[in-house]
């Protein structure tokens, strides 16, 4: 199949920060104008030996920023990430010219509380929401945040995976409309961790009560690992959340067959 070159920009990696051996933050110049809204994703790709591999990545950056920012996890034997992790600043990659996705902040239902739940890299769209609203709030421009309040729970096995913790904790102390709680599921591997422990879905009931979140006033957003999404959806539905008040962005399919790099 021939590729239509018109669909892609030649994007360039501007900067890269390795959070751990299998997590990195990439700053990318898309190579042309890429319009998007907080919560949407870009499609990045690499072409090798005439074979193009592309995947979706949520923007961490706010549309107010010039560069795109991504928080990427290496999937051993994955089709794209092993190659992506070899790229250093200056390297080029493909970026589709159109951003996609409907995982935007729900400003249409009338619900003004937003419960944001993620595993590791699933924090990306939530950072984009908060950066964007923060910028509007500080400028005193526009209607945001108005009555809207954001409550964010992030789960990970290890505390070093919370790459945006410092930034999100700073917002928590600076603005009245945002709360952030990170939780580690393997506290025995995190000796110096004195924050919340347990899987993020197991903490949902505790925090919906602590934050006094009621289904009729709260939209829930589930982003990242499909098992977390499934468990959280069940917990929320049993607590009274209707389907239309739960938005989901699964990063992959649970139990999908692993592919070899050559597949
Ligand atoms: C809307 C959307 C937004 C996304 N945003 C991000 C993002 O911001 N950051 C990010 O890192 N990823 C994100 N992803 C996932 C991303 O698109 C790729 O699927 C992921 O990077 C793996 O790509 P790969 O080609 O290396 O592995 P693949 O060849 O796609 O997958 C190989 C195998 O590993 C499984 N798999 C894929 N990802 C994981 C994982 N994280 N953990 C365990 N198994 C996995 C697959 O189901 C498959 O069985 C997003 C996905 C979607 C649909």
Overall helicity:
10-25%
Q: What is the CA-CA span between the terminal residues? A: 17 Å
Task: State the low-pLDDT regions, or none.
Answer: 258-263
Q: Give, in spatial order, the strands making up the sheet with the most strands.
A: 4-3-6-1-2-5
Helix segment count?
Answer: 5
Bound heterogens, unique: flavin-adenine dinucleotide
Shape: globular
- Total strands: the figure is 12
Main sheet summary: 6 strands, antiparallel
Radius of gyration: 19 Å
One letter per element, helices H and strands E, the order comes to EEEEEHEEHEHEEHEHE
- What portion of residues belong to β-strands? 25-35%
Structural class: alpha/beta
Average predicted local confidence, pLDDT: 94
Would you give an account of this structure?
The chain has five helices and twelve strands. It is an alpha/beta fold. A six-stranded antiparallel beta sheet has the order 4-3-6-1-2-5. Residues 41, 55-58, 70-73, 75, 78-81, 101, 121, 124, 249, 251-253, 256-259 line the site of flavin-adenine dinucleotide (FAD).
Task: Give a quick summary of the entry.
This protein is of the alpha/beta class and 263 residues long.
